[in-house]
Amino acid sequence: MKKHLFPLFLLLVGIHAQAQQDFFAITGKDTQSINFNDFRALDVANGRSGESIFSADSPARVFSQSRKGVVTEDRNSYNNSQAVTMAALAYDPSNNNLVYMPMFSSNIYVLNPQTKEMSLVENNVVRVTSCDINSHITRMTAGSNGSIYAMNNSGTQFVEINNKGGQYTVNDLGIVKDDVSNGKNSFTTIETGFGGDMIADSDNNFYVFAASGNVFKVLTKELKAKFVGKIAGIPDNYSVNGSAVNAQGKVVIASAKGAPMYEVDVLTLQAKKLPGEQNLHIYDLASKYFVNNKTTSVNALTNLDIYPTKVDEHYINVHGNDRSLKGNVKLTVFDMSGKNVLSQNLSVKDSSLDQKVYLKGLLSGAYIISLADESGKALLNKKILVTK
């Protein structure tokens, strides 16, 4: 019997290690200037590097979406999948791909970490010129609605990248401007607002972490960046170049200058140094998590919940245990346009609800799950993201 336990133990350790590598990073070579090294997985909880997924020296086979075929790229130009200048990376939860853009290029690349297949999305929407630092795309993240978002240094372009049936489309959402209350902490000037990275919250608003350590909240509907404060607890000369959310809802920041990573509380902006490697040159970070991804309860049923919020097994669990739960509970699934795409009645037994609901036929993307009692009174609303 014992001879079978050791391989099983190794398997479990391997699964646990893979689960810990839930961040991705663009890393650079140990130089003073930007010099792309590779995309790699990270175990940020322990500050360790994982698998190198694709490097500056990897063979690149690039499939062009517009030309519908494999293309040969000029490695000496800014417009190639292994360009020296990289600072924008996002994790696409709808298909587990990495999406990124070279700084001096409008090209968008989609990399499958498993197969190493690369797709090129050419577009005329993103306007980048090598001589204009304002136009360089330096921030990118997945939104809680399943789309990918990217922004240039000065906020004059905020773009949305959508995957529809395997084809990527790019939309310009407009110009992000300073809130009138920002004062000297301007979002649109080099010293206080340029560079860095951005993350999303569960309401599809964004936080931009500027290289200076300043943090701005961008309300998507208003396209205004409001200064919320400066990160505390990091060295004065710390350059914030990457940011992403961990499983606990905290933001992890990293630097291109080979400094340690820090965990930042979004509410207090207090930073705590993370253990592990101290000399990683990180140009950007990406993860599958969002800030404030919590249950929105609309009444006193605090024991009512829906999980998981990231759905990759085609079902959710609905659990409740409260004396006021009676009869049937109606579950309704809405897409982000407000369309009812699924309804189901759930039976309550002895003030308890414990049921698995299969989400048949739902495409990848964000949805709102609504629970209501027999009178139609809302009990719970919660956003989920279907990834398969």
What does this molecule look like?
It is a single chain. This protein has 2 helices and 32 strands. The protein is mainly beta and 388 residues long. The strands form 7 sheets. Strands 5-4-9-8-7-6 form a 6-stranded mixed beta sheet, with no helix packed on it. Strands 24, 26, 28, 29, 31 and 32 form a 6-stranded mixed beta sheet that branches. Residues 1-19 and 294-302 have low confidence and may be disordered.
Short account of what is shown:
Keywords: Signal. With 388 residues, the protein is mainly beta.
Indicate the topology.
Blueprint: H1 2-20, E1 23-28, E2 36-43, E3 48-55, E4 62-64, E5 69-71, E6 86-92, E7 97-102, E8 108-111, E9 118-121, E10 137-142, E11 148-152, E12 158-164, E13 167-174, E14 177-178, H2 190-193, E15 197-200, E16 206-209, E17 214-219, E18 224-230, E19 242-245, E20 251-254, E21 262-264, E22 271-273, E23 282-287, E24 296-297, E25 305-307, E26 310-311, E27 315-321, E28 328-335, E29 340-347, E30 352-358, E31 365-372, E32 378-386
Parallel strand pairs: 4-9, 14-18, 26-32
Antiparallel strand pairs: 1-2, 1-23, 2-3, 4-5, 6-7, 7-8, 8-9, 10-11, 11-12, 12-13, 15-16, 16-17, 17-18, 19-20, 20-21, 21-22, 24-32, 25-27, 27-30, 28-29, 28-31, 31-32
- Structural domains: how many: 2
Report the structural category: mainly beta
Largest beta sheet: what is the strand line-up?
Answer: 5-4-9-8-7-6
> How many alpha or pi helices?
2
Question: What share of residues is helical?
Answer: under 10%
Report the CATH architecture of the largest domain: 6 Propeller
User: Low-confidence runs (pLDDT<50, min 5 residues)?
Assistant: 1-19, 294-302
